[in-house]
Write a structure and sequence with these properties.
The protein is of the alpha+beta class. It is built from 9 helices and 19 strands. Among the domains are: 19-68 and 156-249, Probable tRNA modification gtpase trme, domain 1 (Gyrase A, domain 2, 2-Layer Sandwich); 304-387, Elongation Factor Tu (Ef-tu), domain 3 (Beta Barrel), CATH 2.40.30.110. A 6-stranded mixed sheet has the order 10-11-12-9-3-13, with helices on both faces. The protein has a 6-stranded antiparallel β-barrel with strand order 14-17-16-15-18-19. The protein has a 5-stranded antiparallel sheet with strand order 5-6-7-4-8, with helices on one face. Helix 3 (51-60) crosses helix 8 (239-249).
Length: 405
């Protein structure tokens, strides 16, 4: 009997190796396309209806994204602050309670392992959110510290509500005090017998919030948001629409714009914070942390390349295209990692890796672009130039209180 029970459980997991999130049943009526992607052990919608429809909801009304698969770790104990300050590149001592910060963590060579956000709940209680699991590495770094580290991904359901009407929708939901919540802040609220944490964070570069709740309250939260948001154009969105918005915001993505040094096979494919143009995330003055010596040395000698924003002529996105210093395409100086014809900005934009010293150049560059037109490939040489990121950052993103719409 014992063997049969174990075998049954094993078979059940084998038949469904990807889990559904706690929002899945409540969100099913809005799924018009049977298109899902795997994310950290969960199956999540790539598209609910149409990517363009969902994208325009982000920029004009508000869109709802299932954030549950985001990997979450609770860090607590007498040495929690000191431990985190040793692990990540930012200065955790400056992070106040009920605030959030974006940061990186590196290996001893100063190469980026991953990026994520740190939420501070108390003097010695934090949560780290990342796209990939990092438990082994976090535990290895904890040797000698009085700290408890536990993965709480399955214990917390999360939604991202992003767009200009997101504040109005949450106010209609009955959440209080949001008018005083500034960007990268968080607060606790009660919702139908459950505690929901609201953070003014997101991955779209627009006004937006993220809601964190116990799985038992997830279905009710989704249903109520769709009810109160109906008059404000609330729309469920999948990964494709989020990808469009994050490129406009100039945010970077693992395995797209950089590869974790834990996953690289070929030498030289790793990235440092300097190469990712994330100098502002590194607090060299705070004292020793993982990779500090290597980062100091790299800063002194200069970097090999940098991740920059590009604007291109025309309206054809240049996904995966190579970049050249001359029109004859004889000197390759970089490659494009993500690209988009921005429907909001009406500009052809891209995120690209550019070799030294060209990442500081004001001169035009040339992108080798291939277009598929009715099964025929055409080659284009398109001019491009470096521009500042973010490409899109409306004032409402940081306005406190946010505008009512």
């Amino acid at each position: 009997m014992r063997f049969e029970a174990i075998n049954t459980a094993s078979n059940a997991h084998y038949r469904r190796p990807l889990l559904h999130t706690p929002f899945f049943e409540a969100s099913k009526p809005w799924i018009q396309n049977d298109t899902f992607i795997a994310w950290a052990g969960y199956s999540t919608p790539d598209v609910y209806s149409y990517p363009e429809h969902e994208y325009f909801a982000i920029r004009n009304t508000c869109a709802l994204f299932d954030l549950t698969p985001m990997v979450k770790y609770r860090i607590a104990g007498p040495d929690a602050e000191r431990y985190l300050n040793r692990v990540v590149t930012c200065d955790v001592r400056k992070l106040k309670v009920n605030r959030v910060i974006y940061t990186l963590w590196c290996n001893d060579e100063g190469h980026v392992i991953d990026d994520g956000t740190i939420f501070r709940f108390g003097e010695q209680e934090f949560r780290i959110c990342s796209a990939e699991r990092q438990l082994d590495w976090l535990l290895d770094c904890a040797i000698g510290y009085a700290v408890e580290i536990s993965e709480v991904t399955a214990d917390i359901a999360a939604l991202a509500l992003q767009g200009p009407t997101s504040y109005t929708v949450l106010a209609a939901l009955g959440l209080q005090g949001l008018e005083n919540l500034s960007a990268m802040g968080m607060m606790q609220q009660e919702f139908e017998g459950h505690t929901v944490m609201v953070s003014r964070t997101g991955f779209t570069g627009d006004l937006g919030y993220e809601l964190w709740i116990a799985p038992e309250g997830a279905a009710a939260l989704w249903t109520r948001l769709m009810e109160v948001g109906h008059q404000r154009g609330i729309t469920p969105m999948g990964y494709q629409a989020l990808e469009m918005a994050r490129i406009e915001a100039g945010f970077i993505l693992p395995h797209v714009d950089f590869i974790s040094c834990n996953h690289t096979i070929r030498l030289g494919r790793e990235s440092s914070p300097w190469e990712l143009n994330l100098d502002w995330t590194v607090a060299l003055e705070k004292g020793h942390f993982n990779g500090r010596r290597a980062l100091l040395a790299e800063k002194a000698r200069g970097v090999r390349r940098k991740l920059v924003g590009l604007e291109l002529e025309g309206n054809k996105p240049a996904h995966g295209s190579l970049i050249y210093a001359d029109e004859a395409n004889t000197q390759q100086i970089g490659e494009i990692t993500a690209a988009l014809w921005s429907p909001t900005l009406k500009r052809n934009i891209a995120i690209a890796k550019i070799d030294a010293p060209h990442y500081d150049s004001k001169a035009k560059m040339w992108v080798d672009l291939y277009l598929n037109r009715e099964l025929q490939w055409e080659r284009r040489n398109v001019r491009s130039w470096i521009v500042d990121r973010p490409f899109y950052s409306p004032p409402r993103r940081r306005a406190t209180p946010p505008p009512l719409r």
